[in-house]
Write a structure and sequence with these properties.
Blueprint lengths: L3 H6 L3 H23 L10 H32 L12 H30 L12 H24 L12 H19 L11 H24 L8 H28 L3 H8 L14
Helix pairs in contact: 2-4, 3-4, 3-6, 3-7, 5-6, 5-7, 5-8, 6-7, 7-8
Length: 282
């Protein structure tokens, strides 16, 4: 800490709870990475992979994709490396966020390899557009927050955006967040042009939806001096349900459009397929 007053704030309830939750989340992430390297990884419930994978993608993807590029831009422009009014010396940010990047790489490799090994047979086509209602929810929830993040990333947060995100490295993270959000919304709508890259299309759509859903609440929780900007709250209130409905609807539509492998096997044997409620899940 750069001053005794700032050091004293670290013992406050907000920082103690925040740091404890952060450490717990890191330990859970490390535990998942280790579990997925074991022989019994396939016995990990799919819901656990889904929830923890979504959390990791939503929280870590903007850091992993945006921060290294932002640091390069910051170095080339000769900008100050001291974040505004944060009370921390620059090396702390470098150390902490480098650790987040390492964790993001570990999660991407382990979870990605597990998903391809366990459900890769489902990822043979790109995601397709969901219902009109889901598209409308996605447009209302995903596009405004992406536009705001792009503006704040290019022009700076000003007085309405997330405070303390003034450095080029930090603003690059906002731009990456915006690009992921827009890409996740657009890709299912143009899936017929992406038939050659189904897994890439799914990766970007999944990551973008998770980022849109989680970055708004993250900006609220990490608001500088615990002062939350009203516009950030409004965008988060739209992005969380909008991004969730759109992402889940895309997955649901895709799975419903695929033939049931159990039915195909029975048909080849000349047997009648079981009713839908008796067919084993994929």
């Amino acid at each position: 800490m750069t001053s005794a007053a700032d050091a004293g704030e670290m013992h406050g309830t907000r920082y103690l709870i925040g740091n404890t939750v952060t450490v717990a989340m890191v330990l859970v992430a490390v535990g998942l990475v280790m579990a997925l390297t074991c022989r019994w990884a396939r016995r990990v419930p799919g819901a656990v992979i889904f929830i923890l994978g979504a959390g990791a993608a939503g929280l870590l993807a903007p850091i992993l994709l945006g921060l290294p590029l932002g640091v390069v831009i910051q170095s080339l422009t000769g900008a100050d490396t001291q974040p505004a009014d944060q009370g921390l010396t620059p090396w702390v940010f470098g150390f902490v966020y480098a650790g987040f990047c390492v964790l993001a790489v570990a999660m991407a490799i382990s979870v990605g390899a597990h998903v391809v090994d366990r459900w890769g047979h489902l990822l043979t086509a790109p995601p397709s557009a969901p219902s009109a209602f889901a598209v409308a929810c996605g447009a209302v929830g995903m596009l405004p927050v992406s536009g705001a993040m792009a503006y704040w990333g290019v022009m700076g947060p000003g007085s309405l955006g997330p405070q303390g995100m003034d450095l080029p490295a930090q603003r690059t993270v906002l731009v990456v967040t915006a690009l992921l959000g827009v890409s996740a919304f657009v890709i299912p709508l143009i899936s017929r042009h992406l038939a050659r890259w189904p897994r890439t299309a799914w990766l970007v759509t999944w990551t973008g939806c998770c980022v849109v859903v989680l970055q708004g609440p993250t900006q609220i929780v990490l608001a500088q001096d615990a002062v939350v900007q009203p516009l950030v709250v409004v965008l988060a209130l739209a992005a969380v349900p909008g991004g969730s409905i759109y992402g889940l609807a895309v997955m649901r539509r895709y799975l419903q459009s695929r033939p049931n492998p159990d039915s195909a096997v029975l048909a080849r044997r000349g047997q009648n397929p079981s009713p839908p409620d008796q067919v084993s899940p994929v």
